Amino acid sequence: MIGERLARLALSQLGEPGDLRLTGLVAELGADLVHARILAGHNPQGLRDEMATRLEGIDPARDLDRAARQGIRWLVPGDAEWPAGLSDLDSSEPLQGMGRAPLGLWVRGPLRLDALPPPVAVVGSRSATTYGTGVASELGAGLARAGCTVVSGAAYGIDQAAHRGALAGAGPTVAVLACGVDRAYPRAHQALLDHLAQQGAVVSELAPGCAPTRPRFLARNRLIAAMSRGTVVVEAAVRSGALNTASWTARLNRPLMGVPGPVTSAPSEGVHELIRSGAATLVTRVDDVLELTGAMGEHLSEPLRAPTTSRDRLTASQRRVLEAVPLARPAPSDSIARTAGLGLVPVRSALEGLSRRGLVEQLPTGWRLAETADEG
Amino acid sequence: MIGERLARLALSQLGEPGDLRLTGLVAELGADLVHARILAGHNPQGLRDEMATRLEGIDPARDLDRAARQGIRWLVPGDAEWPAGLSDLDSSEPLQGMGRAPLGLWVRGPLRLDALPPPVAVVGSRSATTYGTGVASELGAGLARAGCTVVSGAAYGIDQAAHRGALAGAGPTVAVLACGVDRAYPRAHQALLDHLAQQGAVVSELAPGCAPTRPRFLARNRLIAAMSRGTVVVEAAVRSGALNTASWTARLNRPLMGVPGPVTSAPSEGVHELIRSGAATLVTRVDDVLELTGAMGEHLSEPLRAPTTSRDRLTASQRRVLEAVPLARPAPSDSIARTAGLGLVPVRSALEGLSRRGLVEQLPTGWRLAETADEG
User: Fold this and answer.
1) Residues A277 and A155 in one domain
2) Which residue of B has its CA nearest to A320?
3) Are residues A18 and A86 in the same domain?
4) Is the pLDDT of residue B46 over 80?
5) Most C-beta atoms within 10 A of its C-beta, which of A41, B138, B200, B277?
6) Using CA atoms, how far apart are residues B297 and B300, in angstroms rounded to an integer?
7) Mean of the pLDDT values across residues A343-354?
8) Is there a single domain that holds both residue B74 and residue B57?
9) E strand or H helix at A251
10) Are B251 and B114 contained in the same domain?
């Protein structure tokens, strides 16, 4: 028996991320016992015998040492730093045969995962438009300035823009990877990932050195959703990995948000579908996200208000006269007085006041609304 | 006593559109009696005595004649052509002190209002963007081709684009005005309105010759909403007349729809707020609108489907192998076999099949996913 911590480390290298059978066994029996039984050749649930051989080749204490020398730590449930949100995965329905909280997490970087300022995921297409990356980077920066942590996947496009925005906003940001935290995927993001590892955190359930595969991306997406209070999808075409993160967010009953875009833009189609179907709430600005995720305590969006116009400061009789002034063909003041149901003298005085405010104009044949007046 | 038809025509020139008191009296007593009583100086509800004088100056039979010579007809409730949807206004809450069905409608143009193909309102900002007018005109054309009537207000911007789109799609379109149907407001739309009067219909509750005023626009908006099965808002800034039409649509319990746009575009802000608050449903294409308005009977949107990819046609073992192939650093086939949990021979054969389909590539050091493969 080697203890839960090392047993989880060893077992995590046996199965693929999101493997339900192995995590199910660990939940039932404890990692130490599962580890010992597999090594002993016991095979209570039909796990392949090959596993014993593979497990013998894994030296978790050596792996832990080696990682520590690279500045990489290993977290397991029960550790003070273990992110609380992950446990919701254990009570959620699997998706595409994957699910449950990971056996442990590898972390590189100074941010403590248990003390993150409110984490919000910002995800989207790798093939993003300049509109999308602009919005994601603004959103990342705004969330950072509002005191949130930006969580994403360090991919091309939206992910990258969200991380960079958070860094520009001098806020914490966390990348969750589908490969080891010592690797850069895509390779072009080596500098970004190094930067995140110095200032934020880079997280993975895969051991250092592991390569990304397609199912590992899907498994990774559940961690992005579960580590965050809510997920914002910025651009996502109809078949996009970001929609998988969206599904996990919905499955975890966390707020799912979508930023709309032009209906003529394919990368916005998936987001529009999420909003149309009611799965996601439309958001356009940082305050919307803060309100929905409760990331600022009782934060409430200020309702959008149009600027106060000169019309808002009129007297009651000026307003009444204004409503009787025609828009196009000028009318004489007696006709306006008749429409307004007011005497000629107060109407003339009101018209002059309105004219000073630039709301009406006098022409040779009478009065009409000034060009700039809004017809409502 | 002059009969309901002429009495309504006369009374409609006494009050402003949407006047609750006058229409309330008519609903209670009938137009003919209200007309007779006002003329006789009876003033049961505090209507001003000045009204008797004004009413004496109105000759409804002459007005009807004159309009008929201009090709303008006068409809009242009970006429076969009276649009059924208007009566819902009588059971709806007033908005900004206005409401109820109009006393009658002036109509110019060949379309019969009782036989309109499913009418759908398309409205939005006068100060629209090229994105907005492009979307409105596509939508107008698409609705026309799908067999709907496009209803709008003939204003600059979105309205104009929607009408023009419908004409381009060779479909019927109806303009509801805030002035007499013989007038062109804005003047620049004279040709458009003449065209609509020849091919579609131009409608107003204001008598020929009447000028547009601000409250007449608000009253007009309730008719656009009530004559249509649902309303699509394309672009609307926070203080926009189109949001008033939106409020009427919601008040009438008709489907309210909004087309999103870039969050960086002020004219889309009002629409985004409608969607965010749940007042409007996000729509991106004609089929969404048809589905929500039931404009094609049991019309149902086809769910958006991504095109079938070569990945969809793989065998189970090819799929399993593909999922074990790394994305970046190549892996030798024995390592892939281990990850996939399959023997070396079937793995090699699967890799070759995948390679022929362009999904994986072989490098000197092993296999990896081809550049074009989507990581999901």
Assistant:
1) yes
2) B215
3) no
4) no
5) B200
6) 9
7) 86
8) no
9) helix A241-251
10) yes
What number of other Cβ atoms are within 10 A of residue B155's Cβ? 25
Which residues in chain B are closer than 8 Å to A58, comparing Cβ atoms?
A: none
**B80/chain A closest Cα distance in angstroms:** 33
Cα separation of B172 and B148, whole Å?
7
**Which residues are paired to A281 by β-bridges?**
A257
State whether A106 and A36 are in the same domain.
Answer: no
- Give dist(CA B212, CA A329) in Å, integer: 9
What residues of A are in contact with residue B21 (Cβ under 8 Å)?
none
Cβ-based neighbours of B125, under 8 Å, separated by 6 or more: B132, B157, B158, B234, B235, B236, B237, B240, B242, B267, B270
Measure CB to CB from residue A328 to each of B185, B325, B375 and give the nearest one.
B185
Q: Is A116 exposed, middle or buried (0-12, 13-18, 19+ CB in 10 A)?
A: buried
> Residue B285 is part of which domain span?
70-293
Is residue B299 included in any domain, yes or no? no
pLDDT at A342: 80
Burial label for A91, CB within 10 Å (0-12, 13-18, 19+), is exposed
Q: How far is CA A258 from CA A169, A283, B324, in A?
A: 21, 6, 32
B71: closest CA of chain A, how far (Å): 23
- Answer yes or no: is pLDDT of A39 > 80: yes
Q: Which of A21, A189, A269, A272 to mutate to test the interface with B (most CBs of B within 10 A)?
A: A272
Instruction: Give dist(CA A120, CA A117) in Å, integer.
Output: 9
Question: One-letter amino acid identity for A81?
Answer: E
| Cα–Cα distance for residue pair A124/A358, rounded to 1 Å | 47
Same structural domain for residues A96 and A227?
yes
Closest Cα in chain A to B50: A341
Last residue within a domain, chosen from A266, A293, A320: A293
First to last CA, chain A: 77
Tens digit of each residue's pLDDT (9 = 90 or more) over B143-164: 999 999 999 999 999 999 999 9
Number of A to B CB contacts under 8 A, please give it: 154
* Residue in the structure block whose two tokens are 């305050």: A287
Tell me which chain A residues have a C-beta less than 8 angstroms from the C-beta of B237: 306
| C-alpha to C-alpha distance for A205 and B350, rounded to whole angstroms | 28
The residues, any chain, with a CB within 8 Å of residue A64's CB and separated by 6 or more, are A6, A9, A74
Which of A91-105, A278-292, A305-319 is the least confident region? A305-319
CB under 8 Å to B336, separation ≥6 — which residues?
B321, B324, B325, B347, B351, B366, B367
Of B212, B262, B276, the CB nearest to A131: B262
Instruction: Please check whether residues B57 and B78 belong to one and the same domain.
Output: no
DSSP code per residue over B90-104: GGSPPBTTB-S--S-
* Kind of pairing between the strands at B119-123 and B231-233: parallel
Among B218, B206, B276, residue whose Cα is nearest residue B98: B218
- Measured in angstroms, the CA of A183 and the nearest CA of chain B are apart by 10
